[in-house]
Amino acid sequence: MFGDKVIPMLTSGEMTEVESRARAIAKARSLTAALDQGALDPVISVTSSEALILGLLNQGVKKYLAVFGHGSTALGEALRIYEKAGVISTFAFHNEVAMAHAASALRWQYGEVAALVTSIGPGALQAMAGSLTAITNHVGLYHIYGDETTFGEGHNLQQIPKNEQAVFSRITALMGESYLLHTPEAMRDMLKRGSARVNHPSRPGPFYVHLPMNVQPQRIHNFNLRALPVKVCTKIGGADPSTLPPAIDLISRHRRIVIKAGGGAKPYGKSLRRLAEAIGAAVVIAPVSHGLISEEHELNMHLGGGKGSISGNFAMANADLVIMAGSRGVCQSDCSGLGYERAESVININANPDDAVHYNKTVPLVGDIGLVADQLSALLEPLELASEPGRTAWIGECKLKKRAWKAHLEGLVTAPTVLDVRWGKSVLTQAAALKAVIDFAGEHGLVKFFDAGDVQSNAMQLCADEQTGMTFTDGGASYMGFAASALIASGIADEPQYGIAVTGDGSFWMNPQVLINAVEHRAKGCLVILDNRRMGAISTLQIAQYGRTYKTSDEVVDVDYLSMARAVAGVNAVAGGDSSASIRAALREALSYPGLTVVHVPVVWDQDGTGNVGSFGRWNVGNWCESVQRDYLAQDL
Q1: Residues 461 and 303 sit within 8 Å (Cβ to Cβ)
Q2: DSSP per residue, 302-347
Q3: Contacts of 199 (CB under 8 A, 6+ apart)
Q4: What span, in angstroms and rounded, lies between the C-alpha atoms of 335 and 343?
Q5: What strands lie across the sheet with 63-66, from one edge to the other?
């Protein structure tokens, strides 16, 4: 009873029917096997909620991350029955943003497609906000939101209060691709579209499923289980051979060539290295493509962009030909369009036609990045271009800048402590603390996660991965709180990896409830909090542009992070101290702990940028806009 109203429940017969199907699938170990063995009737009468679970199961989705509410009770009951039978697993969360990040990390790091579930209203809005990370980094997963009823009986609690239908689904449609299941019988179409989006070969992303509250318990009659769509598995081919000759001509004529490898190029390091070696090109990476080419490779000039490196930005600024590979040309990555000051032409390798024509004077090569790079290499290797004097001289210039870059980094970490006024004592610089974490992770083969702000920018400049998949950071949305939330995926994944997440104090407070979820889901990893008692990246930017900070620091509030961490039973809390040695000792203790460890490290912030790696590019923001925009309009690339 709810007040004096009787809430309709599943009958015992219906309950037995659902439980029977769940047990049959569990015994057969898959929906297809249960059908093939005759354990299930292929055509059934089923609620929309159960049909969705069966449909996603047919695509390999067995894990649900959920914050249940009044808008998802019917789906929740169906999930309960299927989890009891051992078919699926559901993981409860305390915040929808953190849940969205954990689900994104589960696919991004482990390759497991999950579905997250929220109710109508604020919860769905929070999950949608968290989905920015999946959108900008091309991570495919399902977002399932409860939604307002379809009978139009009046405003629903927590719906967007506007006298229009389907307002929320229109918002998610702007974010990506969504489907409002107004008609339960459209389930098959929805699942087909969802699989195409979530498993897109080059631009996957979240698929938003809107389940009206009254549709969830509705029955679909004559539902054919054998007609359910499977997981989409498609591949993209190489470029049209007729598009290659202009690119070959440009590469043959130019001597100062740079390959800019974006996030889309991450799986294709071997092919891009082959191309670079064939033509004597410098390679510059993006924050999300670390490890694409070995740090010690003579052609690797490291990071380029607004927070790039001395060598990476030199190669970008002085190249006469740019070969883009899997890059969207994000403002920070190409210095708001001014990163290639002397470039005469661009060859753009991308699976997405829109991104392939981002720059002027471009030869677009649309196709799988690895296949296209191999196509070019096969045609260029017989020409032996790399040994030409102009090309070897170009790489020589870049290598000198790379040595200068390494010397700059070394100088930052050799004197790692500085007196900090806010702390009232000498504490580590951000660069020194990060270097200690990065080196420790490298020595032990541990995956690293870096949160937004100072942590992200400095860590990306200091990282030196030898392979991809060892560093994850939200280089697209730069979402504060992603790194801490991503650690929870280690408690959900089939084959978990120990990870170290590094976050600033500002980013940590965006999702502090991850401490609870990490214990609840038995995550094993380490969360390092670099505490400068402010939003350091923005304070630094304010100083650089206007000479003073404004509302970006914690002037009066002191927080004891270790006591707070210890307040959550199961969390190990360790002081990181004020030296690289003490950080390493804390990390060794964390590595031996069978759960989550929080390591707190005070770090310095100073108006002169003490301890930060620094900026080496331009950016169209604040009082820099006028000059950046003037120069952008004047160039012809």
Answers
A1: yes
A2: EE-STT--HHHHHHHHH-SEEEEES----TTTTTTTTS-TT--EEE
A3: 59, 113, 140, 231, 232, 233, 234
A4: 14
A5: 89-92, 63-66, 115-118, 141-147, 206-212, 177-180
CA-only gyration radius of the chain, Å? 26
Nearest to 455 by CA among 439, 478, 476: 478
Q: What is the DSSP letter of 209?
A: E
The mean pLDDT values, 10 residues at a time, for the chain of 637 residues are: 44 79 96 97 97 98 97 96 97 97 98 96 95 96 96 86 90 96 97 97 96 96 96 92 97 98 94 98 94 94 93 97 93 90 97 93 97 98 97 98 95 83 90 96 97 93 93 92 97 97 95 96 98 89 90 88 97 96 97 98 86 86 93 90
Q: Which residues on adjacent β-strands are paired with residue 502? A: 450, 528
Alpha-carbon span 485 to 596, nearest angstrom? 12
User: How far apart are alpha carbons 67 and 95 in whole angstroms?
Assistant: 7
SS3 145: strand
What whole-number distance in Å separates Cα of residue 447 and Cα of residue 435? 15
Q: CA–CA separation, 167 vs 147, rounded Å?
A: 10
- Residue 481's alpha-carbon distances to 86, 154, 506, in angstroms, are 32, 37, 9
Give the length of the chain.
637
Residue with tokens 């104090």: 505
- Identity at 307, one-letter amino acid code: K
Contact at 8 Å (CB) between 357 and 364?
yes
Q: Name all domains of the chain by residue range, CATH numbers in brackets.
A: 12-227 (3.40.50.970), 241-406 (3.40.50.1220), 415-606 (3.40.50.970)
Residue 488 burial by Cβ neighbours in a 10 Å radius (0-12, 13-18, 19+): buried
Q: Identify which of 236, 256, 459, 452 has the alpha carbon closest to the alpha carbon of residue 349.
A: 236
Q: What angle do CA 154, 116, 328 make, to 5 degrees?
A: 105
In terms of pTM, does the model score above 0.90? yes
How do 425-428 and 417-420 pair as beta strands?
antiparallel
Which H/E stretch holds residue 419?
A: strand 417-420
Helix, coil or strand: residue 609:
coil
- Strands in 471-473's sheet, in edge-to-edge order, are 471-473, 447-450, 499-504, 525-531, 596-602, 572-575
DSSP string, 557-573: ----HHHHHHTSTT-EE
